[in-house]
Amino acid sequence: MKDIKKYVEENKERFLGELIDLLKIPSISADSNYKDSMIKTAEAVKKNLLEAGCDSAEICETPGHPVVYGEKIIDKNLPTVLVYGHYDVQPPDPLDLWNSPPFEPVIKETEIHPEGAIYARGACDDKGQMFMHVKALEYMTKNNELPCNVKFMIEGEEEVGSEHLGWFIENNKEKLANDVILISDTGMIAKDTPSITTGLRGLSYVEVEVTGPNRDLHSGLYGGAVANPINILSKMIASLTDENNHITIPGFYDKVEELSKEERAKMAEAPYDEEAYKKKIDIDDVYGEAGYSTLERASIRPTLDVNGMWGGYIGEGAKTVLPSKAYAKISMRLVPNQDWKEITQLFKKHFESIAPEAVTVEVKPHHGGQGYVTPIDNIGYQAASKAYEASFGKTPIPQRSGGSIPIVSLFEKELKSKIILMGFGFDTDAIHSPNEHFGVWNYLKGIETIPWFYKYFTEMSKE
Ligand code: BES
Ligand code: MN
Ligand code: MN
């Protein structure tokens, strides 16, 4: 494994070029106009898996976007690593805020990425991170360093809630059987501070619709006498959190896992600079639930956020109108033990109960998923920790993330294996935002670190 660094250095330009080719295909899972691009991307992933050394790879149809599956089985008695990732990306809007087109990747240097970063939708989330695994496999097969079996499951619906992946897993349990699941779809703290994600938040996503009068009305003739759905919706949303920024939905916190003093103290040891945090996103102050630090608010505490809100007149100039309808999309990030379906029901019941008689309210649940937290006393985590030590010369810090990968808890339940979240992105890489990017250094470091995981995991499995 000594020559992995050299291999990465020698093949750097090709590794970048191949990722750039993949990033050019607009695999937007949310938009049905991009169905062909989804298939084209799945085919490209399959081709890359075969070229990297998989014995077989296939495109598996689902009721939604296809899953790409590939494997290299060298010996049935050896352990099997299952790599999961996603080839779909978020829609790139708003397009005018991109400095270069989202599907025409360019490499640019930045303060955080002096070696350059690849700017494109999906660069970090998750094509770039998924592709690190393909290139790590290439290294291992070309250099006779693959110590165990490997399977790849790369899906195309993560960004829209992995609706059909549960179905796919249930129907392919034997095919997907493994000893550990390896995922790079999260982040790390900083270049000199590697970290492994040990927790993810769950999610409940709902849309609400408030209806007042049966048509838009003249806001002079009717204003003051008829409920304005946008005014009402604003009040209802405002009442969902109190002056301490606690969520007011009855029962919301009942199952929230409270961390011990010791666990919280351990979390506070992670390097974190609040001034730098504020500066990077141009805010004068942080804001959140009383009694918790910024790191805690964004990882171990549940949240409620409006993601979008609309209704009435939003065109140019002014139009005097009392709208008939108001809408909002609301997400709740959940923590371990909170059940997303139960929380969705609690939200629905509460939201309907606080609506005044003058309007009708409809709550439409979207997707969701359970949170996840994993202990670190298993060989998967320990092998990952040693892998970072080998490539970074430093022991990684276990870190709980605020993001969600809903399928992770399902993996644990259905496939009964541990999930290792080896992410190489930075929080500042603008995933889901305009100008998403992935550091060239991060990409190459990921490729360098992954083979060590295979080595240590295989060795530790024999012990
Ligand atoms: N890769 C992200 C999740 C993530 C990013 C976790 C960074 C931890 C650190 C994933 O693609 C994602 O965006 N998930 C969605 C949920 C999904 C149901 C759309 C999210 O977290 O909003
Ligand atoms: Mn992702
Ligand atoms: Mn994402």
From TrEMBL:
It comes from the Bacteria. Residues 199-357 form the Peptidase M20 dimerisation domain. The keyword Cytoplasm does not apply. SUPFAM superfamilies: Zn-dependent exopeptidases. Gene3D superfamilies: 3.30.70.360, Zn peptidases. One of its GO terms (biological process) is proteolysis. It holds the Pfam family Peptidase_M20. This is Peptidase dimerization domain protein. GO terms for molecular function: metal ion binding; peptidase activity. It comes from Salegentibacter mishustinae. Transmembrane segments: none annotated.
